[in-house]
Amino acid sequence: MNRSMSWFNVTSLTLGFAFLYLPMMILIFYSFNASKLVTVWAGFSTKWYGELLHNKQFLDAAWVTLRVGVMSSTAATILGTMAAYVMVRGGRFFGRTLFSGMIYAPLVMPEVITGLSLLLLFIAIGLDRGIFTIVLAHTTFSMCYVSVVVSSRLMTFDRSLEEAALDLGCSPFDAFKSVTLPIITPAVISGWLLAFTLSLDDLVIASFASGPSSTTLPIKIFSAVRLGVSPEINALSTIMIGIVATGVITTSLISKNAIRRQRQEELEGTKL
Amino acid sequence: MAEANPQKVFAPWEDPNQAPLIRFEGVTKKFGTFTAVDDLNLDIYRGEFFALLGPSGCGKTTLMRMLAGFEDPTMGKIWLDDVDVAPIPPNRRPVNMMFQSYALFPHLTVWDNIAFGLKRSDMPKDKIGDRVQEMLRLTRLEQFAKRKPHQISGGQRQRVALARSLAKAPKLLLLDEPLGALDKKLRQETQFELMDIQEKTGTTFVIVTHDQEEAMTVATRVAVMDHGKLVQVATPAGIYETPNSVYVADFIGEVNIIEGAAAPTGDGKVDIAFAEGAEPIHATIGEPVTAGQKVFFAIRPEKIHVGREPDPTRANRIRGKVHDIAYLGNISTYRVELETGQMISAQMTNARRLSRRDFTWEDEVWLSWTDTAGVVLTR
Ligand SMILES: Nc1ncnc2c1ncn2[C@@H]1O[C@H](COP(=O)(O)OP(=O)(O)O)[C@@H](O)[C@H]1O
Ligand SMILES: [Mg+2]
């Protein structure tokens, strides 16, 4: 390591990582603090994690978040996969460029704008804000991420596999179900995990779309912090970091290993 | 190069009472402004092993894809067993295709790959196992049934692809450069295997290839294509011995082409003046030519005799100088420069040992050939 990296590189790497992860480290560290005072260390303890289990508000918020996450990421995966399939396989239909541009636009759209416009829509059509509206909002913004992941997989997918399925008597839908889908499954799963993580830690859009009865964890934490940081919140945040990190790591493992291995098999399977 | 089955006379294309299995009727396929297949008419008969031969990009794959249903003709009709196939989607055509890339399903085992089409046919469930087993036996893949495509060799994969496309017993099997990825030895073995399987199953095969030797080996008839058009359709021997154009003669095997002016001498013979002051070439005409018409004389190297002396029994005798010798073991190819400047290749079998070979570089030799050894082409 030392031989290949100059002191300058080592320093910038250290600084960069410190900048990124030091705040989180401090948070995790203090979540195990026995003291009620957040910044005074009084020995190791896991009592705040225990306290969490008795905090009805936090538990409710966690339950809402979990349901929103599962429902919205599932919906986003279905819609995003369909959109990706149409874009990659649909050929040159009228308005294709516009369509793909519009699918990717939310990637760069400021969240505040997305949130605000959704809020206006919900009010306009008279939809009461609650879990359902958060699910809709999350589906909207995470679907494009799924679509990016799945379409990049579809682009490297050997088209003749689908044609072979048709040739052997599959209807187009059967061909998708029994050939395309099994092969792109890893990409679909990582798309789902990505959408789930995005939904889990979204604050801005959720606060536009949520109603009084449906507070998600990020909203809960954000409002609790305004009354002062408590060790309980540190513990909660640590758990969320854990979940998100697991999601992200799993996603990247799936995309790195499974997809690469599959590509390899596909290549080996078609060439010599 | 001999016919595939010299002992059996199989020539439905010569029988006017035979109905073709496939009929292309003025088929044109355009991609945008580019014409990939150009007003093509072709009949293919039941039981044939039909080869489409041509350089890359001449429209062979497009022709196949129209048969399989992946492309629609821009103009014209395709008939399969007297049915217009235009409205039939690929999954309902009694046609199966073996893809250039094999297109094996990577997530399924060899067994499941072969059973894939059967499960989607009206074959009863308990018959499927037997049929797959039969296919595995036919392609000698029994011990690989449980493997995935990436766990077997290229030659085995190619056989899985073949077994999969044969399993449904299609009326017509399309093979798109099936052996392109195999090395030469494996390719030759597989060619014979293909012929064997074709004979056993009685399926009509249409094979695409850009390898002329492959086409000559396996096919009952060969169609030579160029720029989306058929240039000639004939038996391998017909294509080789009586090409109808310089393009075909040049595409199949080695050939000498000499350009000259025709002077018909009656009795079906023609003299071709090819150079100032040189004795004209005496040849037999296939199609009528007029005096002074520009013609091409095509002759295969093995039809030319090389000797120290002119051979008085052959009508054409020309003197030249050995420019180059390619020793190929069983045969030697001599490149001989005529006094008029043309370069002619002639081939002689090496009956004698190398040390006693007759000619060497710069030797003066006589090239002799009969007046029926070559063909006179007008295009
Ligand atoms: N889908 C397509 N769109 C545009 N051009 C195509 C398409 N498919 C084939 N072509 C063109 O048609 C020509 C014939 O292609 P193909 O039938 O694949 O040739 P071959 O199989 O004889 O090599 C090529 O020039 C190719 O570029
Ligand atoms: Mg091709």
Any key phrases for this structure?
heterodimer; A: 272 residues; mainly alpha; 78% helix; 0% strand; B: 379 residues; alpha+beta; Rossmann fold; OB fold (Dihydrolipoamide Acetyltransferase, E2P); 6-stranded mixed beta sheet; 5-stranded antiparallel beta sheet; 8 helices; 20 strands; binds adenosine-5'-diphosphate; binds magnesium ion; membrane (chain B); Spermidine/putrescine import ATP-binding protein PotA (chain B)
Determine the CATH topology of chain A: MetI-like fold
Q: Using the alpha-carbon principal axes, give the shape of chain A.
A: globular
Query: Based on the structure, what is the oligomeric state of the protein chains?
Result: heterodimer
Q: In which range does the helix fraction of chain A lie?
A: over 70%
Residue stretches of chain A low in confidence (pLDDT < 50, at least 5 long) are none
Cα Rg of chain B: 25 Å
Largest sheet composition of chain A: none
Q: N- to C-terminal separation of chain B?
A: 24 Å
SSE pattern of chain A: HHHHHHHHHHH
Give the biggest sheet of chain B: 6 strands, mixed
